[in-house]
Amino acid sequence: MGDHETHGREPLTPDGGEASAAALEAGRKLFAQECRFLLGVARLDQLPPGDLPEVAFAGRSNVGKSSLLNALTRRNTLARTSNTPGRTREINFFRLGGKSGPALRLVDLPGYGYARVSKADVARWTRLLRAYLRGRANLRRACVLVDARHGIKDSDREIMTLLDQTAVSYQVVLTKADKLKPGALERRCAEVRAAIARRVAAHPRLIATSAQTGLGIDELRAAISELAAIV
Ligand code: GTP
Ligand code: MG
């Protein structure tokens, strides 16, 4: 496990959900292009125009959103990561793609569920996050990141319920899969799959990833490449 050069030959995820060779190739090509930071937004009126499809990364603080973005784009420093939870305080937009070909925006969202900041800050970020998730017509999918060690928490359920209610398609992505032994990861996947089975806007395929070993990264690139626009 963890060898993300084996694409097309064996399942990359413990559920055996394998992307086709064509999808893996499309994902590889999409993410081999340039990716650059566009802007960070602290207020809704600063959002960029909705002229490109967007894929957003949501999840509890410290779940590994920024690390996953860096792994997907093969950059160590694109999105800021840290040991101090709550570091991503704005909605950060990145443009993936060149002047022609497949393109989309990757959106690094502020983490939710972090207690050690002021209530006013939490309320402000929560409002911003919810308003973005609820009202963005070009948001093609939200990746809801869940720490493989911890499973789905109440704050994840709240976000999933919001996405179900607003009919925003979302895909659950387990992070930090390297921290679990294979058997424990299997069990976690089965538990999470059962929890999302009845949610209307949830994509049925669960992808277990590790930004550290590369597990599931090709698979997630393939899934995201289906959402890109041709510019
Ligand atoms: P906020 O911006 O605060 O919401 O956090 P985030 O979700 O962006 O998390 P971030 O990527 O900053 O990662 C948080 C911590 O988890 C860092 O110390 C990372 O090195 C670690 N981490 C992230 N992904 C992985 C992974 O796949 N495996 C392991 N072992 N650690 C990881
Ligand atoms: Mg972050």
Description:
The protein is of the alpha/beta class and 231 residues long. It has six helices and eight strands. The chain has a single domain, classed as Rossmann fold (3-Layer(aba) Sandwich). 32% of the residues lie in helices and 19% in strands. Strands 1, 2, 3, 4, 5, 6, 7 and 8 form an eight-stranded mixed β-sheet that branches. Strand 6, helix 5 (182-196) and strand 7 form a beta-alpha-beta unit. Helix 1 (21-32) crosses helix 6. The chain is globular, with a radius of gyration of 16 Å. It binds guanosine-5'-triphosphate (GTP) and magnesium ion. Residues 59, 61-67, 81-83, 85-88, 111, 175-176, 178-179, 210-212 line the site of guanosine-5'-triphosphate. Residues 65-66, 87-88, 108 line the site of magnesium ion (MG).
Beta content: 15-25%
CATH topology: Rossmann fold
- The radius of gyration over CA amounts to 16 Å
Question: Helix segment count?
Answer: 6
**Topology as a string of helices (H) and strands (E):** HEEHEEHEHEHEHE
Number of domains: 1
Q: Bound small molecules, which ones?
A: guanosine-5'-triphosphate, magnesium ion
Compile the SSE list and pairings.
Layout: H1 21-32, E1 35-41, E2 54-59, H2 65-72, E3 91-96, E4 102-108, H3 119-135, E5 139-147, H4 154-165, E6 170-175, H5 182-196, E7 207-208, H6 217-225, E8 229-230
Parallel strand pairs: 2-4, 2-5, 5-6, 6-7
Antiparallel strand pairs: 1-3, 3-4, 4-8
Bound molecules: guanosine-5'-triphosphate (GTP) and magnesium ion.
